[in-house]
What we know:
The structure is a single chain. This protein has 129 residues and is of the alpha/beta class. It has one domain: Cupredoxins -  blue copper proteins (Immunoglobulin-like, Sandwich), CATH 2.60.40.420. It has two helices and eight strands, in the order H-E-E-E-E-E-H-E-E-E. It has helices spanning 2-22, 79-82; strands spanning 32-38, 41-43, 46-50, 54-59, 68-69, 98-102, 107-112, 120-126. The strands form two sheets. A four-stranded mixed sheet has the order 2-1-4-6, with no helix packed on it. A four-stranded mixed sheet has the order 3-8-7-5, with no helix packed on it. Strand 7 (107-112) and strand 8 form a beta hairpin. It is globular and about 40 Å long.
Amino acid sequence: MVERLLVTTAAIAALAIAGCGGASDESEPPPKATVELRDDGYHPSRAKIPVGGRITWVNVSDDAGTAQTSGVPEVELDLRKLDAKNLFDTHTLQPGEAETVAFDTPGEYEYFSSFDVGATGIIEVVDER
């Protein structure tokens, strides 16, 4: 009797655990892409994501780097707090550091590195609705 009760309890617990883990969340994480800052520029130099997607810049070079759009203020400001549209700045990324930026407005974002004159890239944000 006790053995049967233990087996039944274990089976109910297993079903409850499986049910919790198997339920899918309706909100999927936003799509993302990774761009590497290398000694010879951004790789890939062009990325395409849907509205709401994110790009993560990872500095894999031996030197500091950035990814920023033109029109970013010269002073060190957090553009996310300013609600600045179509502007972004990863700020200085030391070797091994990364920063992620979310894109909520469709369009093409041309960006560059304030450290490497030749490094440029484009993020294309498309509305897939």
